[in-house]
Amino acid sequence: MTWIVYMCRLPYPVQRLYPDKLVETRLANLENEVRLLKRQNRGNSKHEQDDENDAITSDSTRSDVVAHGELDETHASPDATDGIGSIEFMDENDSAYFGPSSNITFMRKIRRGLTFVLKDRSIQLDPVPRRSRSPPPASLAISRPQSPRSRPSDPHPNGTSMADSLSLPSPAEARTLVETYFATTGVLFPFVHKATFMDTFEQARRANFRTLRRSWLALLNIILAMATTIESTLFISASDRAARAEVFFARSEALCIKLTMSGTTLETVQTLLLMGLYLQGTNRSVKTWNIHGLAVKAAFHLGLHSNDFSRKFSAIDREIRARTWFGCIVLDRTLSMTFGRPSAIPDNYIRIPLPEGLGFSSSKDIEQEDSEALSTVFFNETIKLYKIMWLVLESLYESNIGSQGGTGMLTMTSDILRVEQQFMEWQSSLNPALTLITAKHLSTDEEEYSLSKRLRVILSLRYHNLCILASRPFLDFYLHRMERREPDDPETSMILQLGSRYCRTCFESATNLIDLIHTIFHSSKLSRKLLGAWWFTFYYTFNATLAIAVVMLIDRVCGSENQSISGIPEATLKESLDKAIDCLPLVDPGNQMVSKCTQVASTIRRYLELLASSNGLNEQPMVSGTIAVEAVDVDGIDAAVVEFPIDPSHIGLDWFHQGFNPELQSDVVGGLYDMDLFC
């Protein structure tokens, strides 16, 4: 591979980064951490000089770039949750807040509901003698590789030259990655002006990348990181792809973060936004949240929110400023939903007009126009949809404040009706080129790929995911009833009458979403490029899987012998759940985060099968008074047969001894204390 270098003055050094040294880096950092723990145990307040020198030497090869003098926490080990907040990893002394809309809180409710029901069924069923030898626990004891906290770096580690540290791929490879970005992420989030960026790129190339702005270099590196991490091929594994992307991300971070402390530019805000998008595909939820906070503060600093302030800029600058501001809003709504936290940008702060496009007509007939037109219309439709997301979070989830009182169910019901009205108005106003698409339409369409089809698929996934979020409070209501078993009051009786409808609505949205993804994955003629970044696709798929599983749980626990709550046939529920779990590992094969969440979903399905057997549905064969549960071998731990009556502590759930980590849903199955996925 040919490499070129660029020169740039920096107020601090940047270290050499090589993907092939990531394993050695992990080991070196682990050794350093052991040394540190030994010193702490001895009660010494000072570090010996020899050990300190060893730590500095080892740190010179680590994968994260740390500016000299930064705190240890700057590059802490992977968080207890992933960057998009799907699931949790382990208990933390200083636990973070994940509010009502997060998958983490939803998983906690699922865990509590399942725990209560499993314990309750074990009491009701006739006891079965235990085997003489206790079987090994059936928990998925998955351990996350530890990444010790990084130590401050030496000003000149190992004599690394500035030129080596600030290296770039060859111009041809860099240009290919940049083009990949603008054909993928750049279409979905069009706040970086391609023409302007490519002009700067060509000028830099002709000058051999010797005279450049730090802010532009930071933006270039995060664009390279995004292009690398989303471009899946058969020739590179998920881990290698992530390692390569991390090199570019670390350089971008080193170039950008310091700039935000002394001043900011539009390029800096764009870099921070892309860093936030990138981090959602990692296990660094804390950094994801904090980077987004920096982006919003920098946007306010530049006055991107003010229409009056932007009037002094040229037309194209006003347009890019507006797009960047709406990029902040879209990411803010996304993180508020996934992390379950209050939005940083209230809806009444949004007063500038929607993006208007850059040099194309405003006609609704854009089917034959360029990608810029489609991209802008798609971005605007997303902004309108996420305005409904604000309404959902504000009215149905109390803006994720997490107050004890909460709104009454009757008030919530009227709010859901209002949200449904907003959904209908949004759909009716969609541009004809971007109407929602169904799995049936995809399967009959002979065209392998088109930009219009891709944008329709992604917009449909976003819509169905938001519909699930809007219906989920009713699922929460039933999960709560599983624990409490309180006598029904008049309000509860009325809610139960509505519950069937909204369970079906949630199930329909979840199955529509799963059917789209399943069709793309299992079609010989459809391209996987119809989907967006893998972590967003996985979040939508995992969220829909949980929704289907909860509807099945509600039917099996709260329904009567002759009438289920949802009114959905048992075979349909089971088929949909199987299809959803089948899709999960296909989102990004070889990705450890995807594998862990797939195991969690599979375990929930097995417990639902146990419940079905206790209800007499006979989904699992009975063997000598026990129910055979599929054996699982994870990290050398074998899960064998689980006996009835169900004893959750015997199964290995450990839900009564450990707090539940919602992001990677590690606690759903005992032992998953170190997962990090989507909040």
From TrEMBL:
<protein>
    <recommendedName>
        <fullName>Xylanolytic transcriptional activator regulatory domain-containing protein</fullName>
    </recommendedName>
</protein>
<dbReference type="GO" id="GO:0008270">
    <property type="term" value="F:zinc ion binding"/>
</dbReference>
<dbReference type="GO" id="GO:0005634">
    <property type="term" value="C:nucleus"/>
</dbReference>
<keyword id="KW-0804">Transcription</keyword>
<keyword id="KW-0539">Nucleus</keyword>
<dbReference type="GO" id="GO:0000978">
    <property type="term" value="F:RNA polymerase II cis-regulatory region sequence-specific DNA binding"/>
</dbReference>
<dbReference type="Pfam" id="PF04082">
    <property type="entry name" value="Fungal_trans"/>
</dbReference>
<feature type="compositionally biased region" description="Polar residues">
    <location>
        <begin position="158"/>
        <end position="167"/>
    </location>
</feature>
<dbReference type="GO" id="GO:0000981">
    <property type="term" value="F:DNA-binding transcription factor activity, RNA polymerase II-specific"/>
</dbReference>
<keyword id="KW-0238">DNA-binding</keyword>
<feature type="transmembrane region" description="Helical">
    <location>
        <begin position="533"/>
        <end position="554"/>
    </location>
</feature>
<feature type="region of interest" description="Disordered">
    <location>
        <begin position="127"/>
        <end position="167"/>
    </location>
</feature>
<keyword id="KW-1133">Transmembrane helix</keyword>
<feature type="domain" description="Xylanolytic transcriptional activator regulatory">
    <location>
        <begin position="288"/>
        <end position="361"/>
    </location>
</feature>
<dbReference type="GO" id="GO:0000435">
    <property type="term" value="P:positive regulation of transcription from RNA polymerase II promoter by galactose"/>
</dbReference>
<feature type="transmembrane region" description="Helical">
    <location>
        <begin position="216"/>
        <end position="239"/>
    </location>
</feature>
<keyword id="KW-0472">Membrane</keyword>
<feature type="region of interest" description="Disordered">
    <location>
        <begin position="38"/>
        <end position="63"/>
    </location>
</feature>
<keyword id="KW-0812">Transmembrane</keyword>
<dbReference type="GO" id="GO:0006351">
    <property type="term" value="P:DNA-templated transcription"/>
</dbReference>
<feature type="compositionally biased region" description="Low complexity">
    <location>
        <begin position="139"/>
        <end position="150"/>
    </location>
</feature>
<dbReference type="InterPro" id="IPR007219">
    <property type="entry name" value="XnlR_reg_dom"/>
</dbReference>
<keyword id="KW-0805">Transcription regulation</keyword>
<dbReference type="InterPro" id="IPR051127">
    <property type="entry name" value="Fungal_SecMet_Regulators"/>
</dbReference>
